[in-house]
Design goal:
The complex is a heterotrimer. By secondary structure, chain A is mainly α. Helix content of chain A is about 70%, strand content about 0%. Chain A has a single domain, classed as Helix Hairpins. The radius of gyration of chain C is 22 Å and the shape is globular. Classes of the chains: A mainly alpha, B mainly alpha, C mainly alpha.
Amino acid sequence: MVDLLTIIISKYNYWGYIVLMMVGLYAMIVKKNLVKKIIGMSIFQTAIIFFYVSIGMKKNATIPIISHGHDGGERAVHAVDFINPLPHVLMLTAIVVSVATLGVALALAIKVYRQYNSLEEDVIDSLIKEK
Amino acid sequence: METIVSIKPFLAVIVSILAVPLIVSTRRANFREGWTFLAAFAKFSIIASMTPLILDGVEIEYTIAQVLPSVAIKLRVDSFGMLFALVSSFLWIATSAYSVGYMRGLKEHSQTRYFSFFALSLSATIGVAFSANLLTLYLFYEMLSFATYPLVTHHQDMEGRSSGRKYILFIVGSSIGLVLPAMLFIYHMTGTLEFANQGFIAGIVSPKLIWILVLLFVFGFAKAAIMPFHSWLPAAMVAPTPVSALLHAVAVVKVGVFCILRVLTGVFGTQLLFSFQMDTILLYLASFTIITASLVALSQDSLKSRLAYSTIGQLSYIILGAALLSPKGMIGGMIHIAMHAFGKITLFFCAGAIFVATGTKNISQMAGIGKRMPVTLGCFFIGALSVIGIPPGGGFISKWYLLLGTLEASQMVMLFVLLSSSLLNAAYFLPIVYKAFFCTPEESLFENKINEAPPWCLVPLTITAICSIYLFFYPEPFLSLAKMASVGIFSRP
Amino acid sequence: MSRHFPALIIVIPLISAFFIFAAGGLKKTYCFYIAAAALAISLFSSIGLLLQVLQNKVVVYHFGGWAPPWGIAYRIDYLNGIVLVAVAAISFLNLVATKKSVEKDFTEKIGLFYTLYVLFVTGILGIVVTGDAFNLYVLLEIASLTGYALIGMGTEHAPLASLNYVFMGTIGASFYLLGIGYLYLATGSLNMLDIASILPNIFQSNVVLLAFVICLTGLFIKMALFPMHAWLPNAYTYSPSPAISLIAPLTTKVMVYVMIRFLLTVFTPSFSYGSMAVSTSFVWLAVIAIVVGSILALSQKSLKRMLSYIVIAEIGYMVGGVWLGNRAGLTGAILHIINDAAMTLCVFLVAGNILYRLSGDSFDNLKGLFRKMPFSMGAFVVGALSIIGVPPTGGFFSKWYLISGGIAAGHYGFVIALLFSSLVNVVLFFRIFEIAYFEPSDCPHISDRMDEEGKIFNDAPLGMLVPLMIVAVGLIVLGIFTDTIVTKVIQFAIPGEIS
């Protein structure tokens, strides 16, 4: 029992991202307001970014910039001292993608608003059915 | 059995496809018909030129494209295929001439479309005749289904629409739903689809599956109109009569029975079928169709419908002949393809001529018409003789062989079926002729003046009628081809 | 130069996007020609690459000279060689075919449209050509975002339909990213081949299994496999025709390619097909997709909507073929990627032609179309025959392999679903043929009929017809040369261990 608790607590980063992801999904599926859905989508994507960054973390390691190393960047680089920079790099790209998706989604939401004068999904659906 | 490779079979198939752009692009109607005739004559000459080789025992092959491992789109001309191809290509010439008279006589619309799809249908027919394996057979079978749809629905009215629907439903539905899985299953089990003398499936597939496969093919080739997949045929009578003549004498229906015969002899083989007693079920299916169709034909008032049901019955004669699994029966079935073609096409030509000249479609309105159209009705009489099987109609030869076949196979029930159905045939044909010629002047609905159909209609039907008589006296080369084919089918591989 | 084909193939369209954007502001007529030049170069490179692969079995390109797993490597083998050619050819043909349509629909926004078009093609080509899992995500998102924007440029409910597509598509891509994350977590690498070499040691690990499942889920959402297909009909129906004839043939089929790539190259067949239960249930899922897609297509009253449900059914064909796990099934699936892309292009181009000349594509608009637009309808007939599966079109042969695979695997449900789908397609297309062929009852004879523009024969302009004819002829050529394609290319794309 204690082992199980230890495992659960030590993997807190995974729980964090799972919770965030579920929050995002919930917002996307359940909320009726289009902007709220978009925000949910953003949260969803952020959760995954969070996951990636977290897997690069190490104990007693510092951010992967050479001058911040324990030796102040004077000696050779020990990879042990730095957290994994690759996920950070990957996530820079992913953040860009996320922002672009946000932009496209918001642009489409503006178009929807101009067309139906509402951002609530049920209102729009009833407007469509009327036509 | 020597086999040579030559491009002639391929040319025979595509010569009419090549004619289509020419047909479509000409402005003048006479030139357009000219292209059709040119294509028809070219096709017939190419096919006829291969006949001497075939009669000598040579087979001609041509591979068009290798499309699957161990299966190609391939043509092979053998005696059975040659028989069918000769009949079809010769009768196309006659039908084209007749079409000119009919379509112009009725001032039909969309004649260019009509003639182009006709050409395509004949390509597909010759393709079926010359198929070397099941895949090629299936390809040209489907091509024929789609090429004949615009012909059947030519009039583009409500009737045409519902008939077209039935046509596609029965024919395409059965080929995709029944033939395709059967073909794929056979390919999966044996790895090949080439027709062979005693089939290629023996010993590889279990008996229960053989039964299922045979039935899949027999019903899958719905163009053979075996009951209950027959109702597309009477529905297709909405087409212009030359189309019906082509469909019911030459192309579509004979393709159906040809395919069944090919599959029975080339995929399964007579020995295999005999050892699993498949002949019984096939015989009973065929005889059921023959008797029922003949009975229904008695009740039809529309001439074309009566001819349609007659065709359904006659097609099953061919199946019956093959199902007897005896050499004479096989010859009878094969040669009936030719004899029935000539006889039936004469009958349809006459029906169309009557419609063009007088506008009558129903038999009850044809009393005394013999006085007005003696030549037409005379030829109708000859065609009827051939279909019934009375000399000097050519159909007597095929019926004779069929009867001999039943004796050879000791199938007395079938002998009875053949004889009784011949009586029924007489019962639904001869009264028409009698009423047409020998009715009292009060009953006659027509004046006593002779006012025949246009010459373009009259000449072809006279020619095919004369051919029917000629074939009685001299059934070559069809009889030799049928005999050769039968020998090949029953020989040990 | 030919050494750099893998890079050129996506760099040229990418750079051209900037020029097109600039031209959109300055001189609109240049936009088309820049795009055409870029896509022509891509097509040329893709053919060159395929020829190189036929000679050398594999072509590898290290971006910036960095060797994997540190650098990004592009890897072209038999599988993506042929898909690459198909994608490049389709995007080029579609560009040429829809020129007039774009000029008519987007006169103001031509520059923007072509920019998006070229970026979309960049993304799709990149997905096919890349050998790096994360790079695939980036290109996937490039293609998806531009796709969303293209669809959103349509009429009526397009923005809403696109927004729903955004939501579903983002979930799908994010799941894929998550799966890649787990793979990275387990193997420390992002290069597909590198991952494949490390994975066999850790196949029992739950992380790998989770990565497999999550990646697949993401891909299934992106390829609109039932039950994640709901975004497709609306998105495809309301999209503008020049865009949809690009997106429809490519997006979902390329996602199937990605799935095959992951199953065969990254996870290797022994792991992917390791569990019979999983494989069989995915085939049943595909069966449901085929049946549902076909049945729903029957109840549609407009051409594009009907075609989008047919697309959903076709995805079922390919997914089922892949998960059968035997050589015939995989051959059928890969062949079907190519054939289906071609026939989807054909029918959607016809829909585009119809929309160019007529006000809508509901079945009422299609009356008498065989007389009005004979060439377009002729091509439509060829496309329909291919979708139904009539020889000698390509569609028949891919169905042949798929059904053979089903029989070999003993999965008769799949076989019956394929036959059922063929029969339903007969009904679907003959309904349209009937409407297009038979005169409406109020107008007995054709010579009296005029359409909205007062013309009887009113087919699409030559610029739209010629590429359409090329595609239609291509369908038959693909069929006749099936054996060449299979024995020269596809046969080697499938690992030897699959029988």
